[in-house]
Amino acid sequence: MLSFKQAYQEVEEFIAAADFSGNPAELYDPITYSMNLGGKRLRPALLLMAADIFEAEKPAALNAALGIEVFHNFTLVHDDIMDEAPLRRGKDTVYKKWNRDIAILSGDVMFVKAIDFFLKLHPAQQLADVLRVFNKTAAEVCDGQQMDMNFETQQEVSIADYIQMIELKTAVLLAAALKIGAMIGGASDEDANHIYEFGRFIGIAFQLQDDYLDAYANPDTFGKIVGGDIIANKKTYLLLEAFNLANTSQLAELNDCINGKFEDEEKVKRVKSIYNQLTIPELSKQKMKTYFDQGMASLAKVSLPQEKKQALVDIAEELMYRAV
């Protein structure tokens, strides 16, 4: 049974050995740079873990895992262009280090490279089945990104809309990684679908947790500015629930914070005060637990002994209940 730590290490070693070079260098150097910025490697590690519990061949699983990770990094390169973000994981983004046009083209090539890794799979039927899952997921991730951008100017956003957006933008890629790993291991359609649902529900729970942590994490351990979503007026679950529950005076205060010109620290303090009055932290924890529990219930339906699935339980719990 492969632990997350072991899967992470295998992914890191495989990435280090991969050759992303090409000519012209300006097009390919950013790919190597992006792939070596680090990160949690959550999606490829989960793919390896799912493949392992179904006893997949390691070379096939590693190639698929790298395909997933290259695609994920492609989305980050293009996200940084859209956000005009200068930093990614504490270092210059591809957009900042080179320029917008190079970042666009390098990202495009990364998408092609991701498919190249999947093309190493065989037999042909398995390759076709995996690519169908990957292509559907790739389109859904783009759908989610567009929804997220729409929300920036959209006046009315429901919680259902928001959950759908984070499902598409974040959760489905995690779910697809698990499903593809299971498929490579020869899982039944039923088991592959159950492990997909595990990833989908857990992915939604993780994003809801990120919303919560952005406002309530320990600033000494969080790794970024606490309250960044509040400062940016980002429509998170916390803000949307607060708008749903606020009375007239609280609603006026929220709108004042969003439309006013408070200093960042004061703005975060005021908005969090309203969140606390409305018990938003408790509601947020309940919401994420609901999705987490649904994910664990889906994993329980996978027809394998519990000891084979325990590593997936362990990493899900570790990520879900990490210290704030």
Report on this structure.
The protein has helices at residues 4-17, 25-35, 42-53, 58-83, 94-97, 100-118, 124-153, 159-184, 189-216, 219-222, 228-231, 237-245, 248-259, 264-277, 280-300, 306-320; strands spanning 87-88, 91-92. The chain is mostly helical. The protein folds into 2 domains: 1-186, Farnesyl Diphosphate Synthase (Orthogonal Bundle); 188-324, Farnesyl Diphosphate Synthase (Orthogonal Bundle), CATH 1.10.600.10. The protein is built from 16 helices and 2 strands. Helix 3 crosses helix 8 (159-184). The chain is 77% helix and 1% strand.
User: Helix and strand string, N-terminal first?
Assistant: HHHHEEHHHHHHHHHHHH
Radius of gyration: 20 Å
What ranges have pLDDT less than 50 throughout 5 or more consecutive residues? none
CATH superfamily of the largest domain: Farnesyl Diphosphate Synthase
Supply the key terms.
Farnesyl Diphosphate Synthase; 16 helices; 324 residues
Quick overview:
The protein has about 325 residues and is mostly helical. It is built from 16 helices and two strands. Strand 1 (about 85-90) and strand 2 form a beta hairpin.
